[in-house]
């Protein structure tokens, strides 16, 4: 019998009151007060639970804006906590590193609003502070609200990704500006660092200039592991070239399989081994003692999302005011350029188009992540079937209430996956990149 492919798991988080689910903050099982979602102790606890579950990482998404895209008003995003507020997750990584030992620690940081020297220094420092467990989710900030906060105009996708390629190249040069053995710390001869092993980079490119060297010594991974979530052709090219891990949202297994094959094919064309980048598909597990109880939990959760909440978050993610479109319009038939990026999220499992009402409702419930609903056995069955169909590497999990849902998955689903030979039983490797590449 052929050896089963091991599933990789990561936990999706936001330093805010809601993740993918806009029901989360008001769910009766969520133990939030007005501000305890902002406190580091919650995320330390979550990371410790995920480390007990042998997850590859905890990963924080981040947006630097409160969206007014829907109806040209801040009110819907603020009323429904439609990914607002969001506190900066990067300071949390050090808090979490202090109470964990093996799990990777990832966060989003945009290339659009800071110079690459700052990013290289920041992420090299985080890689040191976490002992080589850092992961940087590289994004290019497509939203006009975010760019307005920085006083700049939104650029075309082509320009943004051209800049991002150079941005990463500058960071790599800076991370390489210190040799691994540059620090000698020779007390007798008063030599801390061997200057012949530290170099200026003298970068002068189309978009950036940087003299260097970096003033941070070479970090455990020589810079963090790189994460990406590109869906456009430019985004996929970027991910195939640089990413150690990809977070992908594809509601239908058929579309996930096509995405997986496309990225791995691009990697092969670039001469990168396909196993050097793990593609983790978003999933929202809902577990019950019985199938009926699980469906009741799903219904309870989904009904907590008002339609306007879904319209607000979908408008924000598309950067397009959906109040201009009739609620009964079939979304897969729309021709607006702004809507095409998420077209696979407009389809029912059968391939038929959903209406705007249906898409918005689902987006508020899970941002398009498939919900795996059932008993421990049936949820594990659904996960296994998805991977068999897709060929994918694993899942980025998203909770429907917090704390509680993550603990249920770790305590119940993880042992079932291990029993089936689908999941690791111990960590191997030390750095985030090593965890992602672990195959056994």
UniProtKB/TrEMBL annotation:
MF annotations from Gene Ontology: monooxygenase activity; oxidoreductase activity, acting on paired donors, with incorporation or reduction of molecular oxygen
InterPro entries: Diverse_substr_monoxygenases, Luciferase-like_dom, Luciferase-like_sf, NTA_MOA
Flavoprotein listed as a keyword: yes
Keyword check for Oxidoreductase: yes
Residues annotated as domain Luciferase-like: 46-389
Gene3D superfamilies, per the entry: Luciferase-like domain
CDD domains on file: Nitrilotriacetate_monoxgenase
Annotated FMN binding sites: 62, 108, 161, 232
Pfam family, one: Bac_luciferase
Highest rank taxon of the organism: Bacteria
SUPFAM superfamilies: Bacterial luciferase-like (SSF51679)
Alphabetized UniProt keyword annotations: Flavoprotein, FMN, Monooxygenase, Oxidoreductase
NCBIfam families noted in UniProt: FMN_nitrolo (TIGR03860)
Family, similarity comment: Belongs to the NtaA/SnaA/DszA monooxygenase family.
Protein's name according to its UniProt entry: Luciferase-like domain-containing protein
